[in-house]
Amino acid sequence: MLALLFLPKKYGGSINRIFLCGLIFALSMGAGLNTSDASHLKLRIGYNENSSYPHFLGNGPLPASPPGLSVDIIEFIADELSFEIEFVRMPGRRVLHELKANRLDAAFIFSFKPERQQFGVYPMAGVVPDSKRRLAVLTYVLYKPAGSDLNWTGEQFENLRGAIGANAGYSIVTDLRKRGVLVEEAKSTSNNFSKLRSSRVVGVADQEIVADAYLRKNNLTDIEKDQNPLVTKDYFMIFNHKFSNEHPEIRDKVWQLIAEKRDELTEQFIPKYLNDDLQASPSN
User: Fold this and answer.
1) Tell me, what DSSP letter sits at residue 151?
2) Which end of the chain, C or N, has fewer beta carbons within 10 A?
3) Helix (H) or strand (E) segment spanning residue 166
4) How far apart are the first and last CA of the chain?
């Protein structure tokens, strides 16, 4: 094609112009591809310095080992899209302010509040956040002995005759006590289910992804899950406005991969977070 650009004039200057335009278009398309390629980027991604099991573990400025389920998922996405990450941990409110000031490219995990849109960009579906592209969902569910008449209607308990077990420090403890429910705290999921099986509590309120994985791992078929969640809330990875404006393709690729891979990766990674010592950290 380059040779044709220099055809003698007798072949027609219009041909030269056509091929020159074609070459410029091809080069511009190549440049466009480079701008949407994440391989040259290093993203500063912030999250809370306090543990929120199982999504991120440990306390302080550095990731823990293991780091947490949400960190695992983000690292997988970064590897798939070939960009680097610098994780930064700090108090949650400061994370949002650093994001707004463009000193962080992205942050996690944050539930949606309209006023938080001044700090960063959420994956939206119209005027509401797109649940399909959430990074995590925090769902607390009631577990009970198989055949128990204890029930959660979605609004209130029925046939509650005793204490509900829950992990110490979990937000569900406060939620239940506000309803007047007697709560017996324990340090881990395994402790709670041991109490349930020995009738020391009549039910257990726990995070669905953790409790379900524990029941599968230990093949506990004498415990059943109530189908109505006690509490559920979506959490997202959000990007600062500057990054979103400059790299919308990369932002959308990240959100799309999260939507496609999140559940599969959760299933893959969650078994390593069933250790009792890891669960001793408070979670909201």
Assistant:
1) E
2) N
3) strand 164-167
4) 62
Distance set, CA 105 to CA 45, 125, 198, 270 (Å): 6, 22, 49, 27
Return the structure tokens found at 91. 């108090």
Entry field: residues in the chain: 284
Cα→Cα distances 49→57, 108, 175, 178, Å: 9, 12, 24, 28
Nearest Cα to 66, choosing from 50, 79, 55?
Answer: 55
Structure token digits, residue 15: 């041909």
- Helix 208-217 vs helix 189-197: crossing angle, to nearest 10: 60
pTM: 0.77
What confidence tens digit (pLDDT) does each residue in 4-50 have?
333 334 434 444 443 434 433 333 333 333 334 566 789 999 999 99
CA 125 to chain centre: 17
Tens of pLDDT, residues 189-207: 999 999 999 999 999 999 9
Interhelix angle 69-81/248-269, rounded to 10 degrees, is 130
Per-residue b/e over 82-118, b at no fewer than 16 CB within 10 Å?
A: ebebebbbbebeebbebbbeeebbbbbbbebeeebee
| The pair of three-digit structure tokens given for residue 94, joined into one six-digit string | 């400061």
Q: What is the pLDDT of residues 127-162, one digit of tens each?
A: 999 999 999 999 999 999 999 999 999 999 999 999
Q: What is the DSSP string of 214-264?
A: HHHHTT--SEEE-SS-SEEEEEEEEE-HHHHHH-HHHHHHHHHHHHHHHHH
| pLDDT in the model for residue 171 | 86
> What's the token pair of residue 143?
């577990």
